[in-house]
Amino acid sequence: MPELNIEELRDLEPFIVCLGSHPSTIQALLDFDYLLGRDKPSVKVIIATGRKHERYFFGKKEIVIPVLDSVKKLSEEEKQSINLFINLVSARRILSSSKELISIAPNLSGGVIFGERLPEKHALELYETIKQNNLWILGGASVGLVIPGKLKLGAIGGVDSRQFEASNLFAEGQVAVISSSGGMVNEIIRQVADTKYGVSFALAVGGERFPITSPKEAMLSAEADPNTKAIAYFGELGGTDEADVADLLRSGKVTKPIVAYIAGTVAELFDTPPQFGHAKAMAGSQAETARAKRELLKEAGAKVGDSFADFINYLRRLDLMSIDNISKDADDLQNRSKGLIASSLSYDENGDVKILGKDILDLAENSSFAAIVISMLLGKQEISKETENFTDFVLRLLVDHGPYVSGAMNTIVTARAGRDLVSALSAGLLTIGPRFGGAINEAAVIWLKGVKNELKPSELVEDYASRGEYISGIGHRKYRVDMPDPRVTKVLSLIDGLKERKFTNFAKSVEAETLQKKGNLILNIDGAIAAGLLDVLHECEGYDYDALAELTTQEFFNALFVLSRSVGLMAHFFDQKRLDEGLFRLSDDQVTKL
Ligand code: ACO
Ligand code: LMR
Question: Which of 43, 92, 400, 583 could staple 568 via S-S, CB 3.0–4.6 A?
Answer without folding.
Answer: 400
